Amino acid sequence: MTDIATTILPRVSTISADLVAKRYRSERRFRAYGLISLGITALFLAFLVIDIVGKGYPAFFEHTVTLPVTISADKIDSSNPAKGDYIGLAKDALKAAFPAMSGRADRKALLSLLSSGASDDLRKMVVSDPSLIGKQIDVPFLLSADADLYFKGSQTTVTRSAGSGPIDITKVEEKYTISGNVDGLTEGNILRVNDGAFRITAIIGAEIEAEPLIEPSSVGQVAADRWQTLKFSSKEADRRISDKEAVVLETLKAKGLVSKGISWRFFTSGDSREPELSGIRGALVGSLLTLSITLAICLPIGIAAAIYLEEFARKGRLTNFIEVNINNLAAVPSIIFGLLGLAVFLNFFGMPRSAPLVGGLVLALLVLPTIIIASRAAFRSVPPSIKEAAFGVGASHQQAVFHHVLPLAVPGILTGTILGVARALGETAPLLMIGMVAFIVDVPTGVTDAATLLPVQIYLWSDLPELGFQSRTAAAIIVLMFVLFALNGFAIYLRKRFERRW
Amino acid sequence: MLIFYAGLLLLAATAFYAGRSKAIAILADKPGSMHSLPLYHGAYVALYAIVAASCVYALASVADLPFGQYAALIVALGAATHAFQKISPDFRARNTVEKIVLVVLALCSGFAILTTVGIVFSVLFEALRFFSQVSPLSFIAGLQWSPTSEPASFGFIPLLVGTLLITVIAIFIAGPLGLFAAIYMAEYASPRMRAYAKPILEMLAGVPTVVLGFFAALTVAPLIRGWGETFGLSVASESALAAGVVMGMMIVPLISSLSDDVINAVPQSLRDGSYALGATHSETIKKVVLPAALPGIVSAFILAISRAIGETMIVVMAAGLAANLTVNPLEAVTTITVQIATLLVGDQEFDSAKTLSAFALGLVLFMITLALNYVALRVVQKYREQYD
Predict the structure, then answer these.
(1) Looking at chain A from residue 432 to 451, which residues have their Cβ under 8 Å from any Cβ of chain B?
(2) Which member of A17, A350, B13, B124 has the greatest number of CB atoms within 10 A?
(3) d(Cα A207, Cα A216) in Å, to the nearest integer?
(4) Is the ipTM of this complex over 0.90?
């Protein structure tokens, strides 16, 4: 017997050992699939967040150029300072900084660097303090979106290098030739010299031919610390900022006039056609108004419906039908609610288009099923003994529910409501149907004013071709996600704080 | 109108206070004699006034009578006085108040029915007007969709194919990812791991679709285009693939959380039995747990499909507008929801087939999602195993 066992067993065990090894490999593989799936999901989320934060982060900053301005009384009427020619003052200030740029095209290039709303801050300063009229002050002017993006490096990367040695500039019949220690330069590079600038057009041996972008006041010997080269990573035609404009910006920056600050404007102004002037205040107020309406409608109705269905409704066909309806509505695509809003609230009841009132009503219908389902779950989690004890001391059914069950269900209801509101806050599609996609500059003041909401603002901006708006879109997304995060965090806190094990 | 509401509010508050004071006075006189608490007497008087005023006001509004609101307020005053006189120790104020409260609660729960009716009627009504202008057959079987051209054609097939193409891509991505994630979370993950992984999935589920649309249009689509070019493929800038991939990622949390629940609901005894026969963990999952959880998983997939078909913002921002009849994921296609959104944003003329066609599409979309939700529900009900 032992002989047989010793001869047979090894054979069996090698087969089974192979089999076992194979099965364990398959086990590990299967487990890895799960881990990989989770990993891909996490990576996607990380990629999404990093991408959007990377795109949106620069929009929270803006660049201004500080220029001395003489607020002359002939441009600003001291009896009505709000009406003055402030943009003229801003233009004059910039022109004064570049006296060499006197041609029409030069002037145009120069002034395109200022935002069309550059003088708004100056206006506010003067209106609040009319005694400034007649004085000279240093005023920060907002740069245009393109100039702003240039400094943020989103359009092209600039390599600045100091002069490598003394150079000699000669001017012969309107043609400039540069000689000296100028290694490592190629055509298209820019030399800033004294108060002028050249673009290299050709390199012939040790000599460089260049065309002037800004005519320098003098030519001749230039020391190494008096000139500087600029190299761009993209061609002039591929940039929104021309070489000449770039030189102006570089000159301003070299003089220390350009400063970077937090763009409070992004939070305090409404929408605008200019990226650098646009903000999300209108959208934030619109969202707030709309969600107030939503909450005011769906919280009482949702709780009442949940109380009825959970505590009072007799099980029957009608109750069953209501339940099926609620579950179905929770799965209806949100765009259908937009169609409902358009057909019923706008066309039938004749409510105003684009109004937070209608948006709030539509969103209320949209999140009502969610709130009813969450509230019912909250009621169900309160043990029946609480109610029975209330009955025992003589409470009526309604007294038992309203005095004892409802207070205990409130944390659960609140959690569900906050999650419902978070969902409503991110909802866009139904609002497109009821005309909330309009371009609205003014911040809404009431529920019937035309308004837009944060997600709709994101959608509107994302459609615009300007690079400045792309960054604003991402910044608005950051704000929206931050609010959603805070809401969800608050819901989790509530759940943790008031969670009870019975 | 404002006068009516302000006046009624004031009247109701006064009525409540008066009723309650009278009851308190009676109670102070003869303690323990009242059937109902003073609160209910107050509420009774106030509710009586409100109900009376509302009835009169509604009647006056319907009949378009002048001074309806004043008449309503006067009637309310009379009603409140009448109710006030009824207050006595034997009067059962609580029963009446509770009855009214119950009716209000029941009406609130009826809101869901009202919403459904509203949806069905608003969509159906406009869709019928559309079908009176365009024959249903040319809508359902037409191969060309160009609502703005002259003459316009309303063939639904390209939209359906486009929608299904993007949905299929989304499910191809979300199905395996969501299911494996759910299996890992339910079967393998340690509590620590779950504590990290669950919030990730919940966060992804909470990302607004407009954000995903922005990401799909500005990041994923150029990325796929770039990859396509390195392999020598021409990829449309609004390819179905980009929208489908991002939509797939959107659905992952839905599939994983629903599947997680059904896998967790499979009784431990089934697993223990399988282990006792010598099966490994993964063999148990594949041969025992998944078959047992299959109805729930199928239902999760169907709900995911329904969600993908009805999703709007991702496709509006990342998919195209041109209704190409193609199944090539690298080309641009359009979907039902995209067309609804583009047809109704901007000028709306409710007598033109162009605007009304959006409602016909809405009707189709509503019916498709309703049918899918119903099937999902039935699958679970019909094939669910009862283990207890």
Answers:
(1) 432-433, 437
(2) B124
(3) 19
(4) no
